[in-house]
Amino acid sequence: MKVTKSEFVISAVGPDQYPVDALPEIALAGRSNVGKSSLINRMLSRKNLARTSSTPGKTQQLNYYRANDDLYLVDFPGYGYAKVSKTQRAAFGEMIERYLLNREELKLVLLVVDLRHPPSKDDIIMYDWLQYYDRDVCVVATKADKIPRSRWSKHIKMVKETLGFRPHHSMVMFSSESGLGKDELWSIIQSYTNYGLEADEANEDDTFSIEKGQE
Ligand SMILES: Nc1nc2c(ncn2[C@@H]2O[C@H](COP(=O)(O)OP(=O)(O)OP(=O)(O)O)[C@@H](O)[C@H]2O)c(=O)[nH]1
Ligand SMILES: [Mg+2]
């Protein structure tokens, strides 16, 4: 998908602040500091639209970013950050659980994990949780630029095994640094959002082989 327009829309602390225009939503879940906001910036070709930081635990609401006028990318608070208080953690958990349970516009959850390491206990809990709520999932293994290409397949295998990856879900290797996986991830997202055939046909020249050639 070619993103020609993108904007930050709202930091929502609860359902009464979620957008009401019924556009499809793609949510990003993942450990704090794993690279969710960086992934959003790369997907939208923006340097600093989603705030990234080396201080984990910064994102504490559901942050909505609109791509074209087609869909929202929804940045979740990162989990697994020790310095967030128990009360805060419970409140985020509740908000996310309610969102996952009820949000009709939610079409796909990107579970962002670090390609370098086996998924954490929290990653596994989140993956199981998403399956329990019967949500479609795409596992995005990011920071691929941090390990040599010769070890990518070994690491993908490790990620899949640790998570108990289900073959009906999708998986993509990604790097916000190099752009690896960007077009592939857009194709996956488009296959889950229902602005459908027309958009797909219009984007035939936007194939991921182009960027793959640049890896
Ligand atoms: N080399 C490399 N660094 C990355 C990549 N993605 C993210 N980073 C770095 O990892 C750090 C955390 O990235 P963020 O995008 O802020 O992580 P986050 O998941 O949004 O973190 P929270 O908002 O705290 O949950 C930053 O220093 C990024 O520059 C990547 O693909 N490659
Ligand atoms: Mg973030």
From TrEMBL:
Keyword Cell division (UniProt): yes
GO cellular component: a single term: cytosol
Cofactor: Mg(2+)
Keyword GTP-binding: yes
Highest taxon, organism lineage: Bacteria
Listed GO MF terms: GTP binding; metal ion binding
Boundaries of every EngB-type G domain copy: 22-195
Biological processes, Gene Ontology terms: division septum assembly
InterPro entries hit by this protein: G_ENGB_dom (IPR030393), GTP-bd (IPR006073), GTP-bd_ribosome_bio_YsxC (IPR019987), P-loop_NTPase (IPR027417)
Gene3D superfamilies: P-loop containing nucleotide triphosphate hydrolases
UniProt keyword annotations, A-Z: Cell cycle, Cell division, GTP-binding, Magnesium, Metal-binding, Nucleotide-binding, Septation
PANTHER family xrefs: ENGB-TYPE G DOMAIN-CONTAINING PROTEIN, MSS1/TRME-RELATED GTP-BINDING PROTEIN
Assigned protein family: Belongs to the TRAFAC class TrmE-Era-EngA-EngB-Septin-like GTPase superfamily. EngB GTPase family.
Protein role: Necessary for normal cell division and for the maintenance of normal septation.
Protein name in the entry: Probable GTP-binding protein EngB
Organism encoding this protein: Paenibacillus uliginis N3/975
Lineage: Bacteria, Bacillati, Bacillota, Bacilli, Bacillales
Primary gene name: engB
